Amino acid sequence: MLVALLPGDGIGPEIIAEARRVLEALDLGLGFEEAPVGGSAYKAQGHPLPPRTLDLARRADAILFGAVGDPDCDRLERHLRPEQAILGLRKELGLFANLRPARLFDELLDASALRPEVIRGTDLVIVRELNGDVYFGEKAMRTTADGLREGYDVMSYNEAEVRRIARVGFETARARGGRLCSVDKANVLETSQLWRDVVTEVAAEYPDVALSHMLVDSAAMQLVRDPRQFDVIVTGNLFGDILSDQASMCVGSIGLLPSAALNDAQKGLYEPIHGSAPDIAGQGKANPLATILSAAMMLRYSLAMPEPADRIEAAVAKALAGGARTADLGGTLTAARMTDAVLAAL
Amino acid sequence: MLVALLPGDGIGPEIIAEARRVLEALDLGLGFEEAPVGGSAYKAQGHPLPPRTLDLARRADAILFGAVGDPDCDRLERHLRPEQAILGLRKELGLFANLRPARLFDELLDASALRPEVIRGTDLVIVRELNGDVYFGEKAMRTTADGLREGYDVMSYNEAEVRRIARVGFETARARGGRLCSVDKANVLETSQLWRDVVTEVAAEYPDVALSHMLVDSAAMQLVRDPRQFDVIVTGNLFGDILSDQASMCVGSIGLLPSAALNDAQKGLYEPIHGSAPDIAGQGKANPLATILSAAMMLRYSLAMPEPADRIEAAVAKALAGGARTADLGGTLTAARMTDAVLAAL
Ligand SMILES: CC(C)[C@H](C(=O)O)[C@@H](O)C(=O)O
Ligand SMILES: CC(C)[C@H](C(=O)O)[C@@H](O)C(=O)O
Looking at CB atoms within 10 Å, which of A107, A273, B235, B307 has the fewest? Predict the structure, then answer.
């Protein structure tokens, strides 16, 4: 099995190196091939997603991705910016289903800004659509009839796009607590009205799953007020972006949250939900756990290796229980020492 | 001075009645005129914003608005739904600047889902644009070339729209802590790129205000992690909708948060940021404080009566300090008894 390693920018290379150590320690017979992506790829090769990188991503059985984002590149034309690499990979490989679990490790009850009694036992998954919405509609900087600059982006979903992500939501809920909350802004947006209509139609195929609908403003509130009310949330690309970052705070640190982006053949790209954190890059301070847990998701979903996936997750929990803490969790461990703690617990 | 009272749906009539009692107790010589709006107006007169209601809103010096939203009306054609009333008023009266303060009453340190040490001293204002964005662009339910249903909404801002709300943001920051954080999604949206460019241009007029930019996903996270880092946030219509509901949870209850929607002549519509709460309507349980505090904002911003505004705010703080609590704050007071506590403290 071939794993593509795409470290990217900022702390990306550091955390990918740590995750690779964990995968290698498990001796699973995986092959690794690395390629540049993001701002560093632009600087080296003139494009954030060079053809050879895309080719590797296509050839590989799964992709482990670090992070992209580089302040030096903010003023480039949009199609050359680092973010285009991840957006391009998601689109080119048809990775439409983004799974973003947010589970509280009991050991980190005190690391969250929320009260322990509010978050104890939080265990939810956000299923975010990743190939449509205002992310991929027509967009332009244009001039109005009055000669004013205007920014413009089209938001849309068609019923086929909603149906396939809704099914992932229902399947995920069926395999867990049996409750699916669909989040939209149907009181204002036609895109959301279609979303709500189609999710409601698909519900007929899943009589065993309890479906509810929530407006996105309410959901943002409820995720703070009482995150435990949620089992699975299914939502569009933009709302999923916002809510999953927010949810990460309910479980302690964004440095802990892995994610999977899957296509309909279960091929996947795995990445921590945090960004490239240029402010701490190169200092060895980054928390590698979100990437290590992303590697576990990769083993489970794309490489059909659920056992080593369980082992990694158990080792992370054990390392945390043993007191291992990086700076974002209030501790002093470097990324390498945190990984050592995971390896020791394997 | 004429105040238009638009109670609306659900708990709207109850909370407007309580706010009116407070205004009348102050004996300010205000005249009041009431008109139906929202689902109840649709049921009575066939339209959520009847012409006579819009006419009253135009004639009045200020508008005190309850809430709209009625599950009975969810399947009506969009232009007949309750929400169109508030969207119509905002647009028809040019109410483009939405001020949503979120200040923690020390007495409610324990009512929030966030830890006291995280929220103590939180005092921020969200300045939300209210006349543009994906709320008011072209929208449609259409059919794709393949015969699929598709929902569609155009997001856009032009430079004039961004400039005028940016100025409100800078002015608000100048009158407070001097820090403005502009929130967008410039790494994906052209609308946001224009937003960021124009806000940066306007900053030149306000050298005394410290401007920063934050992506909306980050902002959703930071509002939970450390809400005290913010002084004034300026953002578009959609992101402001989400972030302001979220921020309400940082200060205890959405039942406490007032808002103002102003046009360029300081004419305003004042409303609690919570909704019509149909589940508790008619039971006298609603928290009237957000509406009472909205009335205070109305006195200050549109009626040039800062003194009685201060008195109302002080009375609310005193009532809370005295232990007055409605159900949403963990207490047992009815709306009427909560208002009595405020009146006693006036
Ligand atoms: C980098 C950016 C384009 C991306 C997104 O908005 O999807 C990121 O925030 C994420 O959530 O993966
Ligand atoms: C009722 C709805 C249209 C409205 C909005 O989205 O603006 C509400 O959520 C608000 O924030 O005032």
Answer: B307
Q: Is residue A55 domain-shared with residue A164, that is, in the same domain?
A: no
With respect to residue A102, please indicate whether it lies within any of the assigned structural domains.
Answer: no
| Predicted confidence (pLDDT) per residue in B296-310, tens digit | 999 999 999 999 999
Query: For chain B, how many structural domains are there in total?
Result: 2
pTM for the model: 0.96
Calpha distance B285→A286 (Å, rounded): 48
Indicate whether A107 belongs to any domain: no
Q: Taking a C-beta distance cutoff of 8 angstroms, is the pair B131, B168 a contact?
A: no
Last residue of a domain, one of B227, B250, B273: B250
Domain that holds residue A133: 113-250
Q: Assign residue A47 the CATH number of its domain.
A: 3.40.718.10
Provide the phi-psi class of A69: left if phi over 0, else alpha when psi is between -120 and 50, else beta.
Answer: left
The answer to whether the Cα torsion of B41, B47, B48, B52 is positive or negative is: negative
User: For this structure, is A135 an active site residue?
Assistant: yes
> Which of B144, B193, B245 minimises the CB distance to A220?
B245
What's the mean pLDDT in A45-74?
A: 96
Binding residues of A: 90, 100, 128, 217, 241, 245, 275-287
Whole-Å CA distances, B304 to A138, A258, B170: 46, 52, 21
Beta strands in A83-137 (DSSP E): 97-103, 123-129
